[in-house]
Design goal:
Rossmann fold, EC 4.1.2.- (chains A, B), homodimer, elongated, 5-stranded parallel sheet, 3 domains, 6-stranded parallel sheet, about 15% strand, alpha/beta, THDP-binding (chains A, B)
Chain lengths: ~800, ~800
C-alpha cells in the first residue's frame, strides 16, 4: 500500500464521487458544530434540551466549513492518486474541523481509544473540545496530522515549505486564511517558491481561503479587484486558480464539482512540473499552481440570527448562536442547523460513520491525520555526526589565551561535515548572515545556498540544490526550520543576536508546541530547534546601538524550563562541544550565543568537553586560590567577551593584588544556575555552593542583561553577595573595549568590584583602585581621540595562568 | 515661502538642471566616501597618506549611492514643485548618504554648528562618522530629517504611511531596499494603500531600490522576471514605473535624464490623484504610482579590487577597499575613487559647496533635512483631553467589589471623546481587535475604521475617513503608529497581550530611538508610544495556551529605564487615570495591561486618581491591620486578576483567620518597585519600606512571570521575605478560575501562602490550610466535570471590606 506520487487524474469525478465528498463534508461539519455546542445527545436522537448544551460556548465556527470542505476534496484526490498529502491549516483556530476530519478517518480513535467511533466516543469528542481538561480549541499538538497550531497567525506557509524540503514525494496542501494573509510573516512566505527545488523537494499547494472576514473586519485580499489579486499571486510566482463556491445558496454538489475540477487541475499541473523536474526537462523555476477559494464565512451555518445576517459575515467568526442554553429560539436554530447535515444519513445506529462516509477516508498512512511526517519524531533518525573533537583548536597550558580563532568559523568546518554526512536531513537557515556569522566559507566547502530564482555570471554558491537556506526574513528562516523539524529532520538557524527578537513570538509558540507535544503520548520527540546567535551585542562595532540587544535569552527563559536550554560557549572548543550536544538533542529550544570575531582560545578539547558536560565549573588555571587557602572571592563569567574580561581582571588581580585568593568560574549552560526544582538542569545546592561558595562575594560578568543572573540564582545561599555586571543598554558605534567600558563590564571594573567586595581590601589597596579608575578614564579618552582601543586591550592581553599551571 | 502642494511639472529638466543634479550627487557621494574613510585631508589637497585614513573602517557603501541619487533628484522636484517632502530611507545603514545630504543642504551645520560648511567642518563630518563618541553608522535620531533608523530592516514603508496619515499636503518618498523588501513587515506594508485616504492623508511614493544584493546574497526581487515583479507591484495596488540606471557604465547624465523623467511622471500622477481626490472626482481607490529603481550596488565605487568585481556586487556592501592603510594599491584606488567625483569642482577654497551645489538645496523647511515633521516634537501639540473623571464608574465603600464593569469599554467611551476633540491628530491602531478588546462599540460612536478598499452592503463602521486603523498585522499597526508619532501626532495601539511579542523587536528599536533622541539637543520630545494590551493571559478562555503570554512587559523593561513605563490598572477608574496620564506624556513607551471582561470595580475615581498618582499604595479597606497593630504580613498585587484573587484571599483570611493583621497593597506602576537609582519612577527605600515593611513576609500576586517582581525589588530590605506568584507557563483552554489554580495564583493559594509565612500561624491554623487545599482540589474537579468554575468564584465573590471601612 505504498503511495505513488504525482499521478495525473484518472478520470473526472462522477456524481457519486461528489456525493461521497458531500456526505463526508456534512459529517465533518456536523461533528464540528457538535464539538462547539454539545455535551450530550450527540446524534440528536432526542429533542435538543438545555442540558445537552455546553455551559460555556468556546470555539471558532467561521473558518471551519472551509477547512472541512478542502479536507473532503483532498481525501478524494489522495484516494485517487495515492498521493502522500500533509494538510497544514493556517486558520488553525478552525480546530473542530481538523479534529472532525481525523475522527472520520478513524485516526482519532486510534490515537485516543476512548474517543471511539460510536455514540459514546462521539459524545467524548464533543465534550472534550474547549473543555477544561480536554483539548484546545485550535489545531494543536493533540490534533493528529497537525504541525501548525494556527493560534498565532502567519506561519502556515513557511511551515508548509519547511515540511516540503527534502521530501520529493510529499504534497503539502496549505490553507492560508485571508486574515493570516495580512500578517508580515505570511506575506513574506509566498516567495519561498524561489528556493524550492522541484526535483529534490516536495510540492506546496497554497490554498488561499478568502472567506472575506477576520474577527470584526473584512479582509484586505477579499476586497481588492480580482485582477489585482491575480496579479499579486502571479507576482508571487504562482499560477492562481480562482474558484468561488457557496454564493447565493449554490447547491453543494455544484460547489463540489467546481472545486474538484480546480483541485484536479492544480494537482495535474503539479504532477507535470514534478515529472518535468525529475526528467530534467524543467530548467527554469516553474509557476506552481495555487488555489484561491472564495467561500462564505460560516458557510452552512445559520444564515440569520436575531435579525442580523450571520453566514457570510464576521458574525460567524466564533459562536454564531450564543444564547442556546437560555433562548429557545436560538436552541431551535441550532437543532435546525445540526439537522441540516442530515446526521441520520451519515452515522449508523451505533453512531459510527456509515460506509459511504467511512470509505471516503484514504487508507492507512495516506490518511491526512495519520501521515507519519506530521508526527516527525516517528520518522526522525539521529544525525550522523563526525567526532567534533577532530575539529578542535589546539590549546594547551602554554598556549592558553595566546592564539586567536573565530569560534563560528571553526564550527563551520564541523558543520560542513554534518552537511556532507546527512545530505537529505540537515539544513542551515539564516537571514543572509551565514557568511557574516563566519560559518562560511567552511560550510560552502560542502554545499551551496539553495536557490531557484535567476542566477547571473559571478554568482557564488547558489545552486538549485544546497543545504543552506537564506532569505532576509528571520520569520521565514525560522518558519522553514520549524516545518523541517516538525516533519522529522534536523537543522540550525543562525542569526544576529539582536534580531532574534524578531522571532520572539515564534519562539514562544514553538516552545508551547514542544511543551504540549511532550504530554501527547503518541507524539515522538522531534529534533531540537537550534538557534546560533552570533554577531552578538559586544561586537557590533559597525552597526551600533540598533544591533545591540542580548534579550532573546530572557524571552527564551520565560518559556517552560522543560523545553528551553541556553548555552554561552566562550571559545571554539566549547562551541564545538555545545553544538554537538544540541544537534543530538530532541524536544528543546537550544539558544547558543557565540562569537565570530578572532578571539583567544582557552580550553583544550578535553577540558572543553568536560566543562560543557558539567555546564559550568572552576577554571583552576585562572584563579589564585590554593589547596590550603579558600577563595576570598569568586569571579564568574558567562559568554565569550565577559569571560575574556574576567580572565583579564584575574590577571590584573594576580599581578597587582597578590594577597587575594581568587577563584574564577565559567558558566556555559545558564540553566545550571537555577535550583534543582526550577529547571531539569538546575544544579543541586551543595554542588552550586561548592563552586560559588556560600559566603564569599561573587562578581559575575554576564553576556546579557544582568538581572537574568539574579533571577536564576535568587534561591542560592550566596545570592545576597552576588554582584552582576552585564549589558545595561549602553551602546553605540564604537570599539570593542569601549563597549565593555560603557556597560561597566571591563576588566578594570570587574577587578575593582572584587576588591571593593572583599572585606578590608578596598582600604588596603586604594592605590590599585585609583590606578584602575584612571586606566578606565584613559582608555575612554584614547578611544575617542584615536578611534581605536588602547593597545593593551586591543591585543586582548592575557597575562598567563594561575597556580594550577 | 510656503509650500504649494501637488503641482504638475512645469517643464522637462534642462541639461543644466541635470548637471546640477549630477554635481550635487557627486558631492554627496564624495562626502559619503569621505565619512567612511577619511580622518584628515578632507579635500584631498595633499596626496592621500596612511595617517589620513581611519584606523577602523566601518560603514556601508553599497546602498549609499542609490540613496544619494534619489535625494539629488528629489531636491530638484522639491524646488520645482515646492512640495513638502519627507525622505524615509529603509536602507538606513546607508547613513553616510543621508548625512551627506543634510550637510549639503546646510541643515547639518545649523543643527551641529561645529560641523561647519568649510574644510574644518568637513573634516569633523568625516571623523565623527562611525567613530567613538561620534555618530552612528546608520541614519539615526542624530541625523536631521530622519524618522527611520534602518538598522533593523522592514519598517520604512509602515513608517512612511504613518507619517502620511492626516497630513494631506505631505509627500513621503520612501526608499525600500531590496533586502528589506524580503522581510515580513515590509511585505505586509505594501497593502497600507488600502487604508490611505487620498483626500485627507498625504501621499506615499515607494521607491523600490533594486541594487540586487544583500550582505552576501542576491535579492529575490532582483532575480525574478520583470513581468513577475510588475505583476506583484500591481497586485499590491500600485502602478509601477521601472527604470534602470548605471548599467554598463551608462553616462551619469543619461541616468539622470531617465530617472528625472520617471520621477516627474510619478509626481504628476500623484498630483492628479490628489487633485481628483480634493474635488471629489476620485471615488475608487487609485493605483498610486511607485518607482522601481534598478542601479548597481556600490555604483560609482571601485569597479574591481584585487581581481574581483566589486561595483554591482555584494562585495560593495560595506567597505569596498579594506586595506587602504597598509596597502598602497588600495590607497591609490581610494584616492582615484574620491577624485572621480571631481571634488575641486564641487567645493570652493574654504571647503564649502560651490554655488551650483549649494543652490540645489531647496529653501528653508523644504529641505528634506529640515522638514519639521521629521522632528515631530517640534510640531506636536498636546491633545485636547476631556476630564477622564467624568467617565468614572461609580464606586463607594458600600458598592466596592459589588458591581461589574468592562474596564476597556469604559476607556472606549473616553477615547471616543479624545477622537472627537482631536480629529486630525489622534488615531487608534490595532490588529482587528478594537472590537474584541471592547473599545468598540463606544469608540465607533465617534468614528469609523478608515478603509479605502471595496465596501459591501452590510459593512459597519468602515469609511474612507476614520480614526481607527485595523489590519491583521501587529507590525503594520505599530509601524504606522510609530510613523504617526515621530511626525508629531498621538495614538494608541491595542492588541492581544500575547501577540505583542510579535513586535518585541520593534519595541526595542523604538525605545532605542527614543533614548538616543533624548540626547539630541534639537530633537523635541514626541508623544509616547502607548500600548494597550488586553485580552490578557488570564482571560484567554477560548484561545488557550497559544494566547497566554505576559512576557511583553519583561521585554519592555529590558530597555532603558529612561524610556519605559509599565502600568497595570486593576479596574476601570484606574485604567482611565492611567490612560489620561499616558496620553499626556512624551518620550516614553507606555505599556498598559488591562482587562476587558466584566469584573468588579474597586476604587472610586478620587481614590483611583490618587492611587495612580502614587503608582502604588495600601488598600486600607481590604486589610485587617489597625492603627495600634502593625501588619503580620503584606499581601500585594499587580494586575486586575491578581488583585481580585488577592482581595478574595484577604476576605478568606479576614473571615477564617481573624487573629492575623494583614495589609493589602496594590501596584499600578511597576517601575515604582525599583530602587531610586534604577528607574526615575523608583520609590525611595524609606517610602517603599513604609508600604511593604522591612521585615514582614510579603506575598505578591503578579500578573506576569513572577521573577520580574524579584528583579524589580531585589535591592529592597524585604526582598528575602518576598514571595511572588504569577504566570508560570501553565495554560490551556479552560475557565478563568482554573487558570489561576493552574498557576498557583488563586485566592486559596495566596491565603495559604500568607499563613505559611507568618511565624507560627501554619501550626495553629492547620485546619484552615487543610480546608483550603481541599477547596482547591474540589474546584479543579468541579471545573473538569462541569466545564464551569465553582459558583463561589464564578460569581467573583468579594466579601466586604476591612477595618478601614
Amino acid at each position: 500500500m505504498t503511495a505513488t506520487a504525482w499521478q495525473l487524474r484518472r478520470a473526472e469525478p462522477t456524481a457519486s464521487d461528489l456525493e461521497q465528498v458531500d456526505a463526508w463534508w456534512r459529517a465533518a461539519n456536523y461533528l464540528s458544530v457538535g464539538q462547539i455546542y454539545l455535551l450530550d445527545n450527540p446524534l440528536l436522537r432526542e429533542p435538543l434540551e438545555r442540558e445537552h448544551l455546553k455551559p460555556r460556548l468556546l470555539g471558532h465556527w467561521g473558518t471551519t466549513p472551509g477547512l472541512t470542505f478542502v479536507q473532503a476534496h483532498l481525501n478524494r484526490t489522495i484516494r485517487e492518486r495515492r498521493q502522500r498529502t500533509l494538510f497544514v491549516t493556517g486558520p488553525g483556530h478552525g480546530g473542530p474541523g481538523v479534529v472532525a476530519g481525523a475522527y472520520l478517518e478513524g485516526v482519532y480513535s486510534e490515537r485516543y481509544p476512548d474517543v471511539s467511533l460510536d455514540e459514546q466516543g462521539m459524545q467524548r469528542l464533543f465534550r472534550q473540545f474547549s473543555f477544561p481538561g480536554g483539548i484546545p480549541s485550535h489545531a494543536a499538538p493533540e490534533t493528529p496530522g497537525s504541525i501548525n497550531e494556527g493560534g498565532e497567525l502567519g506561519y502556515s506557509l513557511a511551515h508548509a515549505y519547511g515540511a516540503a524540503f527534502d521530501d520529493p514525494d510529499l504534497l503539502v496542501a496549505c490553507v492560508i486564511g485571508d486574515g493570516e494573509a495580512e500578517t508580515g510573516p505570511l506575506a513574506a512566505s509566498w516567495h519561498s517558491n524561489k528556493l524550492l527545488n522541484p526535483a529534490a523537494d516536495g510540492a506546496v499547494l497554497p490554498i488561499l481561503h478568502l472567506n472575506g472576514w477576520k474577527i470584526a473586519n473584512p479582509t484586505l485580499l477579499a476586497r481588492i479587484p480580482e485582477e489585482e489579486l491575480v496579479a499579486l499571486l502571479r507576482g508571487y510566482g504562482h499560477e492562481p486558480l480562482v474558484v468561488e463556491v457557496g454564493a447565493d445558496g449554490e447547491p453543494a454538489l455544484d460547489a463540489h464539482a467546481r472545486f474538484a475540477a480546480v483541485l484536479d487541475d492544480a494537482l495535474d499541473r503539479i504532477a507535470t512540473i514534478k515529472a518535468d523536474a525529475s526528467t530534467g526537462r524543467l530548467t527554469a523555476r516553474p509557476a506552481w499552481p495555487m488555489i484561491v477559494l472564495r467561500s462564505p464565512k460560516g458557510w452552512t451555518g445559520p444564515r440569520e440570527v436575531d435579525g442580523s445576517r450571520v453566514e457570510g459575515t464576521w458574525r460567524s467568526h466564533q459562536v454564531p448562536l450564543s444564547g442556546v442554553r437560555d433562548d429557545d429560539a436560538h436552541r431551535g436554530l441550532l437543532a435546525e442547523w445540526l439537522r441540516s447535515y442530515r446526521p441520520g444519513e451519515l452515522f449508523d445506529e451505533r453512531g459510527a460513520p456509515v460506509p459511504l462516509v467511512a470509505s471516503h477516508a484514504p487508507e492507512g498512512e495516506l490518511r491526512m491525520g495519520a501521515i507519519p511526517v506530521a508526527n516527525g519524531g516517528e520518522v526522525r533518525e539521529p544525525l550522523r555526526l563526525t567526532d567534533f573533537r577532530d575539529r578542535a583548536v589546539e590549546v594547551d597550558a602554554a598556549s592558553r589565551g595566546a592564539d586567536e580563532a573565530e569560534a563560528t568559523a571553526i564550527l563551520g568546518a564541523w558543520l560542513a561535515e554534518v552537511i556532507r554526512d546527512n545530505p537529505e536531513t540537515f539544513r542551515i537557515f539564516g537571514p543572509d548572515e551565514t557568511a557574516s556569522n563566519r560559518l562560511a566559507p567552511n560550510v560552502y566547502a560542502s554545499t551551496d545556498r539553495q536557490w531557484n530564482a535567476e542566477t547571473l555570471p559571478g554568482d557564488e554558491h547558489l545552486a538549485p540544490t544546497g543545504r543552506v537556506m537564506e532569505v532576509l526574513s528571520e520569520h521565514l528562516c525560522q518558519g522553514w526550520l520549524e516545518g523541517y523539524l516538525l516533519t522529522g529532520r534536523h537543522g540550525l538557524c543562525n542569526t544576529y543576536e539582536a534580531f532574534a527578537h524578531i522571532v520572539d513570538s515564534m519562539l514562544g509558540q514553538h516552545a508551547k508546541w514542544l511543551e504540549s507535544a511532550a504530554r501527547v503520548p503518541w507524539r515522538e520527540p522531534i529534533s531540537s530547534l537550534n538557534f546560533l546567535l552570533s554577531s552578538h551585542v559586544w561586537r557590533q562595532d559597525h552597526n551600533g546601538f540598533s544591533h545591540q540587544d542580548p534579550g532573546f535569552i530572557d524571552v527564551a527563559l520565560n518559556k517552560s524550563p522543560e523545553v528551553v536550554r541556553v548555552y554561552l560557549p566562550f571559545d571554539a572548543n566549547t562551541l564545538l562541544s555545545t553544538a554537538d550536544h544540541c544537534l543530538r538533542s530532541t524536544g528543546y529550544v537550544n539558544v547558543v550565543v557565540a562569537g565570530k570575531q578572532p578571539a583567544p582560545q582557552w580550553l583544550s578539547m578535553a577540558e572543553a568537553a568536560e566543562h560543557c558536560e558539567r555546564g559550568l565549573g572552576v577554571l583552576p588555571w585562572a584563579g589564585t586560590e590554593t589547596a590550603d587557602r579558600a577563595p576570598d572571592a569568586v569571579l564568574a563569567a558567562a559568554g565569550d567577551v565577559p569571560t575574556l574580561e574576567a580572565l583579564a581582571a584575574a590577571s590584573l588581580l594576580r599581578e597587582r593584588v597578590p594577597e587575594l585568593s581568587l577563584r574564577v568560574v565559567n558558566v556555559v549552560d545558564l540553566t545550571r544556575l537555577q535550583s534543582e526544582g526550577q529547571h531539569p538542569h538546575g544544579l543541586p545546592d551543595a554542588d552550586f555552593d561548592a563552586i560559588f561558595t556560600r559566603d564569599r562575594p561573587v562578581v559575575f560578568a554576564y553576556h546579557g542583561y544582568p538581572w537574568l543572573i539574579h533571577r536564576l540564582t535568587y534561591k542560592r545561599a550566596v545570592h545576597d553577595d552576588l554582584h552582576v555586571r552585564g549589558y545595561v543598554e549602553r551602546g553605540t558605534t564604537t570599539t570593542p573595549f569601549d563597549m565593555v567600558l560603557l556597560n561597566d563590564l571591563d576588566r578594570y571594573r570587574l577587578a575593582m568590584d572584587v576588591i571593593e567586595r572583599v572585606p578590608g581590601l578596598a582600604e588596603s589597596r586604594a592605590d590599585v583602585l585609583e590606578e584602575w579608575a584612571d586606566a578606565r578614564a584613559r582608555a575612554r579618552a584614547h578611544t575617542r581621540e584615536h578611534g581605536v582601543d588602547i593597545p593593551e586591550v586591543a591585543d586582548w592581553l592575557w597575562q598567563g595562568g594561575g597556580p594550577a599551571e
